[in-house]
Records
---
Amino acid sequence: MNKVAVILNPVSGNGKVQRFKDQIVVTLRDSFQSVTIYETQQSGDGTSIVERVASSVDLIVVAGGDGTVNEVVNAIAPLEERPAFAIIPGGTSNDFSREIGMLQHPLKAAEQIAHKNSMWVDVGKSDHYYFLNFWGIGLITQVSETVDIGSKQNIGRLAYYLRTLQTIGGENPFHLKVETDTDTWEGEAVMLLVGNGTYTGGIRAFFPEGSIKDGLLDVLLIKETSLQTFWEILQSRVSNQIQNKEGIITFQTPKITITADPEQTIDCDGERQNKTPSTVGILPKHIKMIVGNV
Ligand SMILES: Nc1ncnc2c1ncn2[C@@H]1O[C@H](COP(=O)(O)OP(=O)(O)OP(=O)(O)O)[C@@H](O)[C@H]1O
């Protein structure tokens, strides 16, 4: 692994990684023969940079937040020949970087990347869209729609959950049908989350036992929401015991087909891309990632 392209979003996390740009390059050059840095100017640049450089580099590093990671993964995942991928966390939640054990200080993460420890990880796929952390409909989309920029920057990942708690009571139940190769469930629901990684919005709340290398999706279906139920889910990261809670169904599957009435907006890793119906699957060990302490 010798040639590296760093895709840096200068505005992620209020310019968090931008401040360390020169030191990141110095750190990586100690370990890799060639390191080129590409700064994004606007949404979509991450995709076009990958299209330009993917065939000529061994490793693509995103220095930025979850939005930039998501864009770049969507450009790398469909390729036949995929370069390895790494993350220097620079946003608010930095979900997948936590999943793969990256330290949250940009320079410390660059030092971890210089060690070149790698692991093949699963990637989720919803129709033609790829995700690393989660796919969700219902309450989760109301949450990310209502997290305003101010509170996101001030209190970061906690904003996600505080807003969730505030949203409870205003949820809109919908008719949901989920089908796997072996089972079908149909009924009224307020949220369906399908996880690959275990982090959502910066904390390990919903899928404490998930794995990014088991070739399976973790499904969490909430039939009804009450403050109590939701609090228990957030607590589940301590107890690991959500399976038997009333109003909640959890299971693992490699593939799930989802239909909702009325149709629901889909949130993939914090980005709203499509509406239901949707088929969600897992691509086992699809991307080679440079990891930290896993
Ligand atoms: N130079 C730029 N100026 C303005 N916006 C940019 C620029 N480069 C990229 N963008 C856009 O900035 C958006 C936010 O990026 P990103 O998610 O990395 O940071 P963040 O919002 O601070 O992090 P998080 O998603 O973890 O909260 C992305 O949608 C991206 O397309």
---
Amino acid sequence: MEFAWFKGHGTENDFVVLPDHDGTVHGDLDPAFVAALCDRRRGIGADGVMRVVRCTALGHNSPAEWFMDYRNADGSLSQMCGNGIRVFARHLLEQGLVEGPEFPIDTRDGLKFLSVDGDELSVDMGAWTTGTHTKVTANDRTWEALEVHTGNPHAVAFVDSLADAGTLIEAPHHDESVYPEGVNVEFVQRIAPQHVAMRVHERGSGETRSCGTGACATAIATAKADRESGPATYRVDVPGGTLHVTVSPDRTVLTGPAVIVAGGTMEWSA
Ligand SMILES: N[C@@H](CCC[C@H](N)C(=O)O)C(=O)O
């Protein structure tokens, strides 16, 4: 099978974009195929894969034309990807598949609204919730963490220094009764008022250079600690750049750069 691909990133959280407009090229993505594409030595290399498919091809009755079918690097599913959807939107804009500056994209976490302003793309991530105070352990150190859901599950731990978490080769240990489907873990250092820095270990992808839903979870946990009640905008520095998150009681809006950097065709035989 020969197929087209694109590669893009948002603050160095990188993705393979697979056009499959009518659902006839890839169908339901095989986890082994996704993992092979994401392999950094034998494949294209990425933190995740997004299939670009029309909602109608999936039988969805949606106000959006396009559905983001997102997979982690190990082939597992996630409901939402905040950097991925902004890269997905950049792809749609560059290929003339949507008209800006504002448009919806459907996801497993429901409809999201995108807006473009030059190099920056924003996504209204919709509702968020927080849960219990839990614990995460990495490299024999344990921290208190807040359970946050931003379409997908997160545990946010405040640290004195980002280096405290050590190498994140292994997934941090977490309470499986709180997170039966796994968790994305953020380690967060305060830098200044409304300015934090974060490292993340992503479920299904390992330590990455950025995570959009994780930046939102981080901003939510920080806003709660700050007892913010109205909209508050946080700068979130990640190893791959800077994101901004506006936290309101009923939603977050994530803003940052997103670019497509390469594309081509590839032969694949299973
Ligand atoms: N990098 C993403 C999050 C991708 C999904 C996550 N690994 C999960 O399994 O929930 C982002 O930018 O939000």
---
Amino acid sequence: MTKKGALLVNLGSPDSTDPKDVKKYLDEFLMDPRVIDVPYWLRSFIVRGIVLNTRPKKSAEAYSKIWWEEGSPLIVLSERLRDKVDDHTGIPIALAMRYGSMTIKKGLQELKEKGVTEVLIVPLYPQFAMATTETIMVLAEELRQEFFPEMTFDSLPAFYNKPEYIEVLSKSIAEKLEGLDYEHLLFSYHGVPERHIKKRDITKSHCKIDGQCCITHSPAHKFCYRHQCYEVTRLVGEKLQLKEGTFSTSFQSRLGFDPWLQPYTDRTIEKLGLTGINKMAIVTPAFVSDCLETLEEIAMEGEEIFHEVGGKEFTTIPCLNDREDWVRVLSGWIDRWAIVEVETAIA
Ligand SMILES: C=CC1=C(C)c2cc3[nH]c(cc4nc(cc5[nH]c(cc1n2)c(C)c5CCC(=O)O)C(CCC(=O)O)=C4C)c(C)c3C=C
Ligand SMILES: [Fe+2]
Ligand SMILES: [Fe+2]
């Protein structure tokens, strides 16, 4: 007799804003070979020899600016989502984080204790990336083999182009912008090194990271983060009937010296202000839950950049978080899986 359950998985946060906790978290995160994808000795030198000497203090200060009484916004918002999805679906729902204390192992154990044998892993990311979806699935499978051999896994694929997702995202944008005569809407996605995109090109020749490859149909797009980001912008633009030239795409949060996906968000905000845009809005569809990258890097630093170059109004659109319509959409996908297994995505 089998029993189904779902495990929602988000990125994770440090346990507190203490630099020691931030260091521990960053060590686990940045030592992941799917995040910094260089040989172990080099990754260890970069992360432990350079980044962790200075970054934890700086990141801890940034976390302190956005931390809530209940804890990390990303964790609290993910917990609220889990609770609501649990109320809406007919199967047990657990929550885990890829990094930090709320481990995937604990999440799977929780489901096991409820008698679950068939698990739908739900990476809480609209787009595929090796630094997000892939690393979750790889770790989950390793844990399954070692600790939960009686379980079977399916996964919810990237949902960047699912009409129900585009609908709720568009609605969330329209609601926030209602009555605001903003001049430009920027879609800012978390960046990744260009190398990550080329590495996951299953055709080995499609991705050139130019103006054309991501809009030219290809099987490579199943794993192309850049294509999937541009598709979200395009589909929302269509849904909201945004006029050409009033919206654009950029990539934030670059780290290190390698080329990351461009255009960069900070430079784009600056350019918009310098070219006479007075009122801009910004949405961050690589994240389902508000987090350090949206609440500090965009809502605080981004706004500061815009004002410094003469921009007047800067509106940040919240992530979907635990919105009722998003909860219904996510719960619907899970319930549909629970009734009929549609897709199996574990390699
Ligand atoms: C070095 C590489 C990084 C890659 C590649 C990367 C990809 C990536 N990250 C997210 C989502 C989030 N990242 C967050 C924080 C964060 N990201 C990196 C580095 C890379 N991310 C660092 C060093 C940090 C820590 C904060 C800092 O020191 O600046 C967060 C926020 C977590 C929180 O606690 O709020 C999220 C969410 C995606 C979606 C992605 C690839 C697509
Ligand atoms: Fe990140
Ligand atoms: Fe592409």
